Amino acid sequence: MIRFNNDYNRAAHPAILQALAADAQQSYGGYGVDSWCEKAADEIKKYLSCPDAAVHFLVGGTQANFTAIDAALRPYQSAVCAETGHIHAHETGAVEHTGHKIITLPGHEGKITAAQIAAVGEAYRVSPIREHITQPKLVYISFPTEYGTLYSLGELADIRAACSEYGMYLFVDGARMGYGLAAGDVTLADMARLADMFTIGGTKCGALFGEALVITNSALKPDFRSFIKQNGAMLAKGWLLGLQFSVLFENGLYFDACRQAVELAMDIKAAFAARGIPFFVDSPTNQQFVILDHRQIEALEGRYTFEPDHDVDDGRMCVRFCTSWATTPEEADALIGDIGKL
Amino acid sequence: MIRFNNDYNRAAHPAILQALAADAQQSYGGYGVDSWCEKAADEIKKYLSCPDAAVHFLVGGTQANFTAIDAALRPYQSAVCAETGHIHAHETGAVEHTGHKIITLPGHEGKITAAQIAAVGEAYRVSPIREHITQPKLVYISFPTEYGTLYSLGELADIRAACSEYGMYLFVDGARMGYGLAAGDVTLADMARLADMFTIGGTKCGALFGEALVITNSALKPDFRSFIKQNGAMLAKGWLLGLQFSVLFENGLYFDACRQAVELAMDIKAAFAARGIPFFVDSPTNQQFVILDHRQIEALEGRYTFEPDHDVDDGRMCVRFCTSWATTPEEADALIGDIGKL
Amino acid sequence: MIRFNNDYNRAAHPAILQALAADAQQSYGGYGVDSWCEKAADEIKKYLSCPDAAVHFLVGGTQANFTAIDAALRPYQSAVCAETGHIHAHETGAVEHTGHKIITLPGHEGKITAAQIAAVGEAYRVSPIREHITQPKLVYISFPTEYGTLYSLGELADIRAACSEYGMYLFVDGARMGYGLAAGDVTLADMARLADMFTIGGTKCGALFGEALVITNSALKPDFRSFIKQNGAMLAKGWLLGLQFSVLFENGLYFDACRQAVELAMDIKAAFAARGIPFFVDSPTNQQFVILDHRQIEALEGRYTFEPDHDVDDGRMCVRFCTSWATTPEEADALIGDIGKL
Amino acid sequence: MIRFNNDYNRAAHPAILQALAADAQQSYGGYGVDSWCEKAADEIKKYLSCPDAAVHFLVGGTQANFTAIDAALRPYQSAVCAETGHIHAHETGAVEHTGHKIITLPGHEGKITAAQIAAVGEAYRVSPIREHITQPKLVYISFPTEYGTLYSLGELADIRAACSEYGMYLFVDGARMGYGLAAGDVTLADMARLADMFTIGGTKCGALFGEALVITNSALKPDFRSFIKQNGAMLAKGWLLGLQFSVLFENGLYFDACRQAVELAMDIKAAFAARGIPFFVDSPTNQQFVILDHRQIEALEGRYTFEPDHDVDDGRMCVRFCTSWATTPEEADALIGDIGKL
Q1: Domains of chain A (ranges plus CATH)?
Q2: ipTM score of the complex?
């Protein structure tokens, strides 16, 4: 079986496993105060054009999301996101578990717009019964979105402007950041300039596990390690996170590995398109959502894993093919060959 | 000014103020363990055909809602309600503040259906990623709804069946219960039979303040007073609540006072209809939502208070006229007269 | 039976009931935005020498405590209080229910000292593992304490200084504020100058119910009504609270009624002392904790109610006699007479 | 520098790193539903004599503690532990952050007794104001304790009996379980028989990271994965946890590695004792707390790392020497030699 079911089905990039083995005899202080975390933060900050950014390393994505949101909001404040936003749709109410409402907006291909955000902000601003509703204070978007789509730099700037206009924080969930950077016109420096906080995903981009959380807004920095610890997100052997992000960022491995995954995804996308197979969304990243009939699914599922997303109509289903840093050109070629035969 | 803006703009029914004055020299034990609360519970239970029901008295509606929901749910479980549901739309995220997600359903005139509830239950039941989403465990409906509409007995029975099918609790917010009972085909005994918990609102139905919470499901009864205290909902001088509900229920005053309010509302509704003024919803209870143009609003707002609900289009607005236990036939007649002149 | 069991066993001061009856035909806007609440705030502010203070009216004491503390603290911050502090000992974990740890200090007669507070602050300041512990950010004291004792003005000033030194808020629970003001050397203006927030209790000092929450620290004022609503502490008919506090404060009734209760308590205290009966604490306020043997308890319990506090040793028990705004000189005299016969 | 500062200063046992490298080309399903987790659970259950136990793998200790406690308690229920308990002293209020109070008991060398627990249970049982206090529902102990001490099998059985008597759950934090099993008379089968839930620590016992949570009480098993996900404790690449615990348990490596650490600790302990150096507690496990003067500290700190615990008096400090699965006999011998020269 060749796995296109997701981008977290293999352990880690060989360079990480090698570095881990090479370093195994060393010992370090605990809880993320160590030379590896320091180095990793420095390597990441080279891309940010934001020397004052705080960079923390957390274990997982859900954890990073609710820890950051809980730290940013006061009890009566809420987060705003697309109906398909991961915090709303797939995190078991983790944000609400910390006490905060999520206000959802209908999305288009996983994305929301500056105008929608402004409308939420304006509704609160003019509300005559403000104390009866929550204050929308943080906008959550993902880059890429859950459907693999991307915000353009212009769209992000507009969202930033709407957030600023209404005093909202902008938080970007970058669980798949590497794939987004490879495909769009946005850089990490843009993220640092436009978002108040964002994550750079490791788990889905070559690491064993781990998310880097970048905080650029000074108001959100103080005592952030207390939030990490309180939410169970502080790894005892924190240097394991630092080491991984150091390996990923010191020579651009993070970008290269994700770029290859996106290129292979584009080849696969082209093969589906050539075959006349429709797409659920037009995704420029490593996740491709295509609509297959049952005969086509049967033809492919013997040799490849891929993920059902939803039923489209009688006999047809939207499924996801996902490349990753671990996908090889040979694997992609095999799939492309079989798509041609559908 | 004659007030039709809401049903909580006057202190309390004279019978309550008299009883309070007459009882002022008595002293009682605290926190709702007293003869008045006992009597009030007994009076209410006469209408329930459910001798084992637990009846508690809480101060306010938001408080009663989140205390009951918090008590019923475990952390990963969520409440289901209409988008217009009071807990979702007007309680400042109080339910989320206790840690629980609210799953919203598009409503029709403030109501949701058994089929919608079953769909939510079924989606969870068949979900292959159940641990990534919350368990829908409690259905919240209001009777009457925020738009004054009512569930029929048949609709309620269907909702109960859907809840039972999927292991969900049914919680009915009866902040305006009296008006609903006066207008529909549902009795308190029906409520006790069909709901796991429901409130009988005092604040909007003749009391100074106070909501009676009725719990019929044995699983939800133990230690409920601990939840009341923890949530700040236990009045030190609890007998003040017991006294009020005793006065309201011992001779059916609750039902009579609300019935008159509904009758006057029906007269007002007929006057609007006779004048050809459109309704936003067809409400059989004390809240009437009508669509007026600015000239009409101007004509009425000098003498009557009423509440803006939302803009309909250029020059027209949906506004609410609300009668209450305190509305007099003379006040209604005055309004009816002026409606006729619009 | 003559009741000395607590200070919330009678409805309300006659002046309040009269004002309520006189006003019953009036109607008001909801949720505490009304002329009575405005007037009550103004009357209270006359005593504060702090024109910018925010004054809110909440229904109950537990509610006021956790709402204020939840509003003041970020998630990793904790409250500090005596082991006997009401929020720790008698509120069913309400503060923890909002997510915050309480750090307890051993008290002396219900009181804690500036030195203890400073020690807690210093321990955090110098901690090398600060992110593994909570930040002590708010000091909770009660005035009078749960044992009826009082902080002197000097002690309060020292506590304020310790709080300021370590960046902590000072919150004073004044559920029995009136009795404390009558007995000690502290004024409401002192409270406003020294505390960041404090309550002025109505429930135990002549009102049917209600606590005034005074906020003097500007950082704690914004959007406070949102916290009130979210925590279920916003009374729909908010003017009922404003009316009561207006009556209590416009002619000094609050102070007079509580002063009489303290004077009667001092007479009772003198009677116990004259009879050689030991005190558990030396309380200058309306709560007197005396140690009685079973024979003495039996002799009194036929005619008076009083509250058991704890067993002292074989055959002896500490019990509380509590006067209130409703206690008459005749009731006190009766008790004094019977104490003389013990 | 030779590190005795803690037992989590080195990556992982070589066998784990080898297994990880050997498995790196494999791919797996996500979120802990994979063959490695299944195998690891099976290997652990061989030691439990409890075929129905549920075994889950979480990333960290704080996370495992608050997730388990949050899942077990309803909002008004509290956890009971020693003042030195990790959840109270070193987890940034994580348990309170989930809404639950912790009731602390004075401990002796980190331990609490069945009698203390029974007293807490009894106090609640007989309380006349039960709804004003939290229900003590879960007892938290650590094995070994934070001071390296152990409960004997008899003590554990007594604690279990007290918990059963008062309807409390027993939760054992086994972050250092391996060291405890090596030193005391308790087996994993005893734990499974006596505790409702317990953890088997990986992080401090040879793994890169990870805690196995064993649930034996059927009431606590349903939907536990929902709690794991909601609390951010579900590793995307869950098989990394399963693989590690499989390696640790399939041939008893977990027990062997920890036993050696304890043996070396006993040699070091003997060396301190021979030199007449006093111990803060008499610990039979891998943590040794000794009282050194500044000259002795200076003599050792050039070559060894160890951790300050607290100041004892002028010139003397209690410090911790900690061996681990990674400590070599040569490292221990070096320290022993230098202790002899103090």
Answers
A1: 2-7+254-340 (3.90.1150.10), 14-252 (3.40.640.10)
A2: 0.96
